[in-house]
Amino acid sequence: MYASKERQAEEQRVRQVAATIQRELEQNQQKLTNAAQETHQIELNYGDTAKINTLEVDDRMETNAAVQQQKQLVALAVENQTILAKRQQRLQRLAQSPYFGRIDIAEGTDQDTLYIGTATLMDDQDEDFLVYDWRSPVAGVYYNGTLGPVTYPTPLGPQRVELQRKRQFTIKADRITNMFDTDETVGDEVLQGVLGAAASLYMQNIVATIQREQNEIIRNTSADVLVVQGVAGSGKTSTILQRLAYLLYHSRKQLAAEQVIMFSPNHLFSNYISQVLPSLGEKNMRQVTLHEFLEKRLWEVQVEHQFTRFEKDQRSLPAATRKLRQYLESTTMMTRLRAVVQQPNFCPRFTDLLLAGEPILTQEQMQALWQQLPASLTVADKYQQTKNKLIRLLQRRVRQAIGTDWLQEQLESLSELDYLSLSAGATFTSDAEERYTLGKKLAQQHFAPIYDAIYNDFFLDLEQQYLVCLRQECPAGVSPVSWQARTETVASNFERHHVALSDTAPLLYLRDLITGGGQNHQIQYLFIDEMQDYSPAQLFYIHHAFPVAKLTLLGDGAQDLFAHETLRGELLPALKQLFPHQKIKVYSLNNSYRSTQQITHFASALLPDAPQILAFNRPGPRPKLLVCQRLLELNQQVSRACRDLLTRETMVAVLTKTQQEAEQIYATLQVDAPVTLMTEQTHHLQTGVMIMPIYLAKGLEFDAVIGYNVSADLFNAANDAYILYTIASRAMHELWLISLGAPTPLITQLAPDLYERTNA
Ligand SMILES: Nc1ncnc2c1ncn2[C@@H]1O[C@H](COP(=O)(O)OP(=O)(O)OP(=O)(O)O)[C@@H](O)[C@H]1O
């Protein structure tokens, strides 16, 4: 009886709040319409003003002032319209679900009841909060505290209150579909509902069900480098997107979405997460993949793609190559380059700048300029001064060219069109002036490629310089023969305008060290998802490239597809080496939310150094292992599995190790549903069946996953347990693994009750 009275009271409140939202929506819509008309009217007037007679000087001045004023009016009107439009969107969001939580807090005899939703809502008089934004300090109590004494931050210091009740709601428009009181962070029941639902094409926000351990990460504003080491499906991506929404809300004046950048694993992922921030009323941050970032900075050469390298590695990766790679991709490699550049007599390798085969500025000249500079200057300063001197030398060359016969001849033979473009409508007072001006322009045009080359730092022979650094010293633990062979490979790569992935970070760093460029001071926050896919050298370089950005790095050592081992072993010393002057905070997330208990147990058992992975209590069928004897049978079984799964699930993924296998199965798959072969160029998830190599499925999830050909032949290398774990942990509800011939011992050695084995 009491419970139903409570429910009635809550239902009545929701209806009242929903009615307020509706009223505000209507009023705001009216204001928005008026504002749009006003903007339009001002723009019309602005057009008229521009037509005012500008012949008389006085009129002209007046018109200029009027135009300025009109421009300001337009800007104001547009701003006003933007604010109203944002408000309308916020109200529309609240109308769908006004709030999801309630807390009752008491301070002494003062009692307060607060409702928490995705945005703030005031009552009609603008006096009382009907809904508190989830990011407000007091709302932290909802996510953080169990009942009893709790504290939350205020401008006057920590505020201590008694949390007397925590209530959760599921509300659709003005109807409560579920409501209960809880003492937990966020009750199991709501989470069960959310996690049991079907996969979606876009990631959803988790604002109503943020867990305590996630909340801490979201609200941390003090760390310079915040690292989240979390098991698959622990909500790392969800948490950082919520964190970004939190940071944008709290630093509204100092931080804009444009000052935030996120490194994401691929375009599919970027698109998959693109709706989370807008659903929380925030603009999206910039996203970039590692390959895009490297390619943009090394635009004159072709950069090896991580995915291409992964595919090649599957065919063969000798131990010696792995060892060399480890060194090239280490922080030691980067600091060694720094030491080379900081040597007292360091002089970079330069290259002649040629025009039609003729050297215009020579490396000897450049070296001489460098040597003349005071030894006390930094390398970057010396470089800039050399660059400036080269520009001056070029200017002198331009002046000298003006009087030369060849230039005068060219002037004489200018076509009418060339003359007009060169003179650009200028009038000259004398013939000599005309000859000089046009001659100078012609000379400037002639030497423009050299100017561009200086401007773009092409006089620095970065490739030779890099080779010099490599040849200087063979690192400890690497055989001199393989080091030399590797260095020769780098040289022949350069001849083909190609750079191997391992050389990209060192090469870029070397260039920046010498030129003093390459640093972006605008970005305030930088997020890296899947940090285990970055080598220490790449992380080192990214930190160098964005020196003021606070970093949030997320990863899972167990999803180490590319065998960088960045997140294996002792994390803190490695981080200290990477970020020696930063305040580092490391969080671990061990609860896995994505998959059923059966899938999580199976996936965790695959890992050799089994981390602590806590499965969420959501039961489902055990993973299935199907063994086939012939290729034809394997393909038939995959088709059959897809058909079966599609009777229950909407998004089924066939995950392979390589692109080639994905193409093979795509060619033979027979199902009565849309089938999409995903490639690096695919940007959107699809319903039906998606086929892709595992590296494209990073960070994604599907209702059901079929692991394609998990045979002993294919999964036998040291890193394969991690690949298989990544495949398995993409599945939310069902996992099938199909093998051609004997399945990998990674599976067969597991406890038999972890999966169900069938022979086809
Ligand atoms: N607090 C939460 N409330 C509701 N759902 C959650 C919560 N935390 C995580 N999830 C859900 O769990 C799934 C996995 O989350 P997410 O992709 O953020 O994890 P992840 O740690 O980045 O995973 P991975 O490393 O495996 O890619 C998503 O469906 C997400 O919505």
From TrEMBL:
Residues annotated as domain UvrD-like helicase ATP-binding: 209-596
Binding site for ATP: G230, V231, A232, G233, S234, G235, K236, T237
Keyword terms, alphabetized: ATP-binding, Helicase, Hydrolase, Nucleotide-binding
Gene3D superfamilies in alphabetical order: P-loop containing nucleotide triphosphate hydrolases (3.40.50.300)
Taxonomy, superkingdom: Bacteria
Protein name: RNA polymerase recycling motor HelD
